[in-house]
Amino acid sequence: MLELQGLTKHFGGVRAVEKVDLSVAQGEILGLIGPNGSGKSTIVNLICGLFPLTDGRVLLHGTDISDLPPHARVTLGIARTFQNIRLFGQLTVWQNLWVAQNSGEQFGQENFLRRWLGGSRRARGEIDRTLEFFDLAHKSDELAANLAFGEQRRLEFARALAAKPSLVLLDEPAAGMNAEEIDQLDRRIRMLRDDGVTILLIEHHVELVMSVADRIAVLNFGQKIAEGAPADVQANPLVREAYLGTATAA
Amino acid sequence: MDDYLIGVLSNVGVISFIALSAYLLLLIGEISFGQQAFFAIGAYAAGIATALWGWPLAAGLAWGAAVAGAAAVLVGVPTLRLHGLYFAIATLAFAEMVRLLCELFRYQITIDGEPTGPNGADGFRNIRYIFENDIGPLQFLVLIYALLAAALLGFMLMERSRLGVAFRMIGEDVALAGLQGIAVARFKVLAAGLAGALAGIGGGLYAHLTTYVEPRIFDVMLGVHSLAYGLIGGLGTALGPLLGVLIDIGLLESIRSLAGYRMIIFGGVVAFLLIVRPRGLLDETVVHYVRRTWYQIGRGRGN
Fold it and tell me: Beta-carbon neighbour count of residue A36 at 10 Å?
């Protein structure tokens, strides 16, 4: 469903992402791994349109979305979480979800007024169910800034799902989590996949990626160096080299 | 009510509109030093409509708001591409431009053998609608506060809608707001247009309250004050900027023994609060706790 063709991003002289080809099939979990600074997060930012491409294309269901602004991409069903948690701290937990909900209905359409000026009653039930799923229902009216770290991570995930996306980009969702929380995350990612959502998972936590990903792609210095089933990637000498260095270099 | 009190309260009410105007832009995270421009446009447009064209007051005020709102949209489209300091400078430049244009603007019609209308730097005298129609100061005060109440009601409803939440999201994190499906650029222009219209209503009321306007009234200090009202009173609720106006005009300007020190105290208050409470007295946290306590009391009664 998602296809990256020759994706390239240079920041000045830094080649953050260089000619990356990658495709994610409908309903699969693709793990994207690589050492720090290898360009993983940049790829996520490029997919959701946070900054323009230097070269290449992003295709969603075969349509070129490279020039669409972020909000239009959300409308097409792309949602994400952030490596460093980004929430609207001065808004309540449920307000954080409310706006993202049904963002398919857009400005200029006839239901604009109902969407933006209508009351909250219609939206409540659905949001409460999402919060329930993430064990946040009791925090519904709390300001997001007042949540504990683990809760904030869950809220970010919940907010990404509120938009009912078909593709979710998870940027290091396990960072800073304890073993139990990672277990929960593992289960939630699988449940999401079982609901038909396609997932691009960026993660440092190798166990988690090996456990949930159907396929894994490996980046190093902005280039894709390996792709395949988890076991194959794990055995790949190039991958070992990228993480551990070569024998001579060491 | 004595005339002095009526005068002070009328002033507080009129200035509240431009304070709300600046507040709306603060919600989306933009600092405008130029809302006085739309206040001026509203004042001239509404004054021209009633004094020169013989329109009724309601139509004049609506016209003032519409012209100011349209001007704000036109200015907003290019300037809202700028952020932070650059937006602030652009709005300031625009407002000064409007003030200077007011000094050049001449449009006079002879009414009852007397030339009436904007006359350049001499200003626009004889906006006599309230005298000609026997509207007393108290009646006009009621009109001002009825409109202000309507504006506040509008804010309350907006803050309870997705639109209000979307505005706050834009103010807190623009990029993240875009990722919630908010078409940020359009929402910013919408906010600018609404803010312009609000300032325009205030300008129209001001013109009819004082019966004349001079270009020098619309100098940058008016814009700075209207911005400061939200920052003092708080950005958590539309009542915040009103609190700011009350503190400044209601206390500092009106208590005669303090009047001479107004600017000193006001500047000190602004500096102090920006350090201690950067989002004002009634900031989001305070408003959140008040609201929650209120609901809990409500629930307690229900049981």
Answer: 7
